[in-house]
């Protein structure tokens, strides 16, 4: 019962971050399941089955708040589903001993990317409004879907920053479109895992707990996406992912680091993480002072307020 409650809270927190950043539900939830000694394929399958419900609710909420570009959803989501099915069947064929550290390495890479990306650069806002090309979105979806299934998460960390970096779509619409298209990825990955490992290797109680927490948080996150500072959230969740997966790798047979080395690494990472979050908070406050943001019924977009002369 305690594990189910913990998973529900993780699902709620992960979806709040995912719905606000367009990433991190999968990597956060899968990281916890691996820490509970769940097999890599089973962990990813559990998360993707839960994501069928959370992404459906999240997508509907983002659509309701005007955060979705359906052309982007179609062009990135369909190839993403193909990549996710391929990634799920690939991961299902690896042994647990081989797959667990590989998945942790993928998650660590994604966590480092999220941490550094949001701490150093924040969210780009230039070139908003220019069209996104199909030849860019198709390969992006294919790669992101494959990484998402094999890493237990990655659709958001790969897709969201790539589209944001193009500067052609408003940040809230990038997040809403990525969250909505993830429904297709979750369905395809789940089918791949059911074919690859079967339902007997999936704990549906854990699926339900993650699903419940995520569905509660999804509409709240879609509303909060215009209010919360993504830069600070990105630094915070990136640090959690990095610290947890470094722990998994140091304890794995690949490294098997002694206790003194592990604790020293944890301490260094914790200090760096705290510094990253502090820097992000300071930069967010500095940016807000430089360009006050008006959020309300008059603007509703989180854009810098303007005055008419």
From TrEMBL:
It is found in: Cell membrane; Membrane. It comes from Micromonospora rifamycinica. The chain crosses the membrane at residues 102-123, 183-200, 206-225, 261-281. Signal peptide: none annotated. Pfam families: TauE. The lineage of its organism: Bacteria, Bacillati, Actinomycetota, Actinomycetes, Micromonosporales. It is a multi-pass membrane protein. Belongs to the 4-toluene sulfonate uptake permease (TSUP) (TC 2.A.102) family. One of its GO terms (cellular component) is plasma membrane. Keywords: Cell membrane, Membrane, Transmembrane, Transmembrane helix. PANTHER family: MEMBRANE TRANSPORTER PROTEIN MJ0441-RELATED, MEMBRANE TRANSPORTER PROTEIN YTNM-RELATED. This is Probable membrane transporter protein.
